[in-house]
Amino acid sequence: QVQLVESGGGLVQAGGSLRLSCTASGRTFSTLDMGWFRQAPGKEREFVAAIRRSGVTYYADSVKGRFTISRDNAKNTAYLQMNSLKPEDTAVYYCAAKFGQASRYDYWGQGTQVTVSS
After folding, report:
1. Beta strands in the chain (DSSP E)
2. Is the pLDDT reported for residue 27 higher than 80?
């Protein structure tokens, strides 16, 4: 089992920055693919970014060039650095994890609220 705990959300003005952290339990973090998703009120949950255990990264078009996903295997932690935030980035952000062989994310955090004011 993997447990994920997110932190770093909050209220920020448009154009500002936030860094989200996701810390995983256990000693298998380096074997996990990690992802960030978000869900805005009244909308479906959507993919934001992912980083594979190899370090390869993927981004949604809406955040490309503004957000950066990274990981520190020594700290069992994945990060999402969010710059140039826009009001439309307002959402609950969820961290997710899966083992490399899995086709979908099996482990999810509780979510952290990000609110961007205009």
Report:
1. 4-7, 10-13, 18-24, 32-39, 46-51, 57-59, 67-72, 77-82, 91-99, 107-108, 112-117
2. no
